Amino acid sequence: MDKLISKLKKFVSVSDQIVAFTGAGFSAESGISTFRGAGGLWSKYDPSIYADINYFNQDPTYYWNFFKDERYPVIKKAKPNDGHYALVKLEKRGKIFRIITQNIDGLHQLAGSSNVIELHGNTRNIFCRKCNKKYSLDEVYTILKKELPPRCSCGGLLKPSTVLFGEPLPQVALDMANISARNCDLFLVLGSSLVVYPAASFPEIAKNNGAKLVIVNIDPTPLDDIADIVINESTSKVLSELI
Ligand code: APR
Fold it and tell me: How far is the CA of 41 from the centre of ligand 1 (A)?
């Protein structure tokens, strides 16, 4: 691995437009389960029921039980890990100019990163589908203990800004991710299985526009063969060594 890290260090030293693209593996060491790979959430919960907009519209109790039992407890106590702080350091050195994240935990912002594009929304932003009133994570949890599915004081149903399967991604985030991928000189994939589109298209867009592509992921991914470097190792370990 040392040879790969020193090759990565060289790439970073000659780049100044670096995009970090993070997935659930990046937050795994903050105690938040991944969806796929060892012990992934989707091996316990069927995403077509628990994380699909059509099912949510039919019967939101499945999603809200998943939120209450699985998501709220871990996200509530999750803290940024060494990987998050390493990206903040890289940003301070003028290296990272964008983070594109698939994660909904808000840990990049909590660690101090500023240029974060959230492709799949943020579970901390919960709103009323009727009057658009905003609710915090804790406020919804309090309502959830009394009422399932949770409703707004106006009677409307609550929903996080998390993008569920079958929902379009936020257009502004997509456009910014597109521009960032086309204009970077180094694209770092950090902790993603790269199987969910359109998010997984950005590494290829970057590569096709001349960027170097580095994939740091415990398991192999479908884009490994177009990457310049593949490191099957923990993201926090690799980034800590890089810094
Ligand atoms: N360091 C590096 N990689 C890790 C680590 C770690 N500490 N722990 C797990 N991994 C890897 C796993 O090998 C796996 O390939 O992280 C990857 C996580 O993959 P997924 O769980 O599929 O997460 P992600 O790629 O972000 O999923 C994309 O799918 O369900 C939807 O909306 C959800 O945003 C999510 C999207």
Answer: 10
